[in-house]
Amino acid sequence: YLKLKNFKEEIRAHRDLDGFLAQASIVLNETATSLDNVLRTMLRRFARDPDNNEPNCNLDLLMAMLFTDAGAPMRGKVHLLSDTIQGVTATVTGVRYQQSWLCI
């Protein structure tokens, strides 16, 4: 569980967000439809990135780290993600939870 960050006021939160957005890339024309295949595509793109500090990364090992059930046979089931981040907005009218994000 991570401590909530106030992105309107915290300087570190702004720096973290600016750094994340500066390194983001958009994958267009992706035809994969399953989470597994989409993540493999993202990881392959990450592995080919010249600024990547881990040029010899193992895709199967990365997938095993992302999913809690990576070693189990799928048999039509869905993967369980090991780690997600969820955005929360607190206002005077209540708390709003955003969709979970997967960060690689």
UniProtKB/TrEMBL annotation:
<protein>
    <submittedName>
        <fullName>Solute carrier family 4 sodium borate transporter member 11</fullName>
    </submittedName>
</protein>
